Amino acid sequence: MPKDTGVTSNTMFKTDASLSKFLAKPKHFKGDEDENPLRWLKRINRIRKGVPMGDLQCLTMAGSYLTGAAESWWEMVEDDVADWAQFERMFRARFAGKDKHHIWWHKIESRQQMAGETVDEVANDLKEYFELLEVVDDGIRIRHLLKALRESISYELEQRATLSTYEEVVREARKLEMVQSKYGRGDTSSLGISSTVARNQVGSEISPSESASANVQSGSLSSQISALANEIQALKINMVDARRSRGLRCWNCGAEGHKRDQCPKPVQAIDQGKDNGRH
């Protein structure tokens, strides 16, 4: 049986227990592949900090929030768990082991900032997966964060070579997000992207600060269109001239050099010839 190593003073526990009404209850953990075991574990530890309790009480509470495969696992190992530290080690080994690494990497690589989702939500989500995979290299973490964030934010961040840590990138991304939100460019715009880049990206917009450059390039585009139209018109004229340069051909006898109304052969003879030809 686990030993109760927590606070034993009933008076102190009752005083701190009043904080429990302000703490959100953790979600049930089933042990499915789409669940994040570290996130659930952090919620349990948050309750432990807010409401001091012994190991026995904490294990009882945590066990009550395990369902499905996770509950079956707990029923098998419950009698062998001596304290909370051992529970954490065994829980991580069972639900956050190396056999799950391919799942976490897929989560990271497919992560994209959705409409209405904040930078902090994306960054924290990725950070939890990095912890599961024990990824500590900031270069790797930053690369995946930039890939997951909205393009208008990640483009600006890529230009700032001074950013070297994950926390710095998150902090700057948060600032950019606030600026975009302030000017109503939140989910669909590309803040800071040059007009040339913006025009090459479907659905991108050009910011007001780039309007002068866009107008210059727009004028150049109009000139190119006008020149193309002139070339097409010249081609049509050449085709007409080419048709006119061909010799006249009589529709009656088929000979060149005269029109039908100038044909020396009688129309009746031509009609008969045609009739004979059909036979």
UniProtKB/TrEMBL annotation:
Q: Which keywords annotate this record?
A: Metal-binding, Zinc, Zinc-finger
Q: Which GO terms describe its molecular function?
A: nucleic acid binding; zinc ion binding
The family database entries (InterPro entries) matched by this protein are listed as: Retrotrans_gag_dom, Znf_CCHC, Znf_CCHC_sf
Q: Where is the CCHC-type domain?
A: 249-265
Q: What start and end residues bound the annotated signal peptide?
A: none
Segments of this protein annotated with the region Disordered: 257-279
Q: What is this protein called?
A: CCHC-type domain-containing protein
Q: Specify the species.
A: Lichtheimia ramosa
